[in-house]
Design brief:
Blueprint (H helix, E strand, L loop, with lengths): L1 H27 L7 E4 L9 H11 L4 H18 L6 H15 L7 H9 L10 H10 L3 E6 L3 H11 L7 E4 L10 H11 L6 E5 L2 H9 L3 E5 L15 E3 L2 H9 L1
Parallel strand pairs: 1-2, 1-4, 2-3, 4-5, 5-6
Helix pairs in contact: 2-3, 3-4, 4-5, 6-10
Family: Belongs to the HAD-like hydrolase superfamily. S-2-haloalkanoic acid dehalogenase family.
Keywords: Hydrolase, Signal
Protein name: Haloacid dehalogenase type II
């Protein structure tokens, strides 16, 4: 029995030794050059500083915007997980009420909340965005957006920022009624544009977004905007860089 076990163990080790070198190339292989680049909008392309300043001033707190934006994301996911749906503007409005309550302040009138929320359609692009998009467009990449904001909002955002002409389509999760990072949001976009997930790359400045895209089978590029981090329990993004032109240089090799 000892001899037989030794022989079986030796055979298993030999098989592993043969298999290991064959597995290594797959682990170190370069990513497939994507045919389609899907861009997140808020914070990735657009600078939220104007909105951040307004919310912080309104609630007299340097952390008010971060609290509000976290509530906005949290309760969009609550809607998705519970099979419910309110658009991003509705959740943003409710999150302002929740923020006021958390800070021990009175709820703002509907008109004032609308003024604050309208600022999301009046945001400039980050300084690196137009140079980066220009490089990618000239290189022949297909470019689209995919945002949690409603269709009407992203249309206004891109027009105000002067970015509409860079994109083949301005897409939102609004028709699907599930928020990113639900895998259906990314897969449905790939199906709509007839590109395989493995040949598609999400470009985003949020670790939760890149994690969701990769779990759905896409590649992901993380723009490391100040204050943003990747999720340590998710796969590392395919590409990481401080600016969009840096991501573009990596894509072009």
């Amino acid at each position: 029995m000892v001899t037989r076990r030794f022989v079986l163990s030796s055979l298993a080790l030999a098989a592993a030794a043969v298999a290991l070198p064959l597995a290594l190339p797959a682990m170190t292989a370069a990513p497939i050059r994507p045919k389609l680049l899907i861009f997140d909008v808020n914070e990735t392309l657009l600078d939220l500083g104007k909105l951040q300043q307004a919310v912080n001033q309104e609630f007299k707190s340097e952390t008010a915007f971060k609290q509000w934006f976290a509530l906005l994301l949290q309760y969009s996911l609550v809607d998705t997980v519970t099979g419910n749906y309110h658009n991003f503007g509705q959740i943003g409005d409710a999150a302002l009420d929740m923020l006021a309550q958390a800070l021990g302040q009175p709820a703002r009138p509907a008109g004032r909340k609308k003024e604050l929320l309208t600022l999301i359609t009046e945001l400039p692009p980050h300084p690196d965005v137009i140079p980066g998009l220009t490089t990618l467009q000239k290189a022949g990449f297909r470019l689209v957006t995919l945002t949690n904001s409603p269709d009407a909002t992203v249309q206004k955002q891109m027009a105000y920022a002067g970015l509409t002409g860079f994109f083949e389509q301005l897409l939102s999760i609004d028709s699907l009624k599930r928020y990113k990072p639900h895998p259906d949001t990314y897969r449905t976009t790939c199906e709509r544009l007839k590109v395989a997930p493995a040949q598609t790359m999400l470009v985003a400045a949020h670790g939760w977004d890149t994690a969701g895209a990769q779990r759905a089978g896409l590649q992901a590029a993380f723009i490391a905007r100040p204050g943003q981090q990747t999720y340590p329990l998710a796969p590392a993004p395919t590409l990481t860089g401080p600016t969009l032109p840096d991501i573009a240089r990596q894509l072009l090799g």
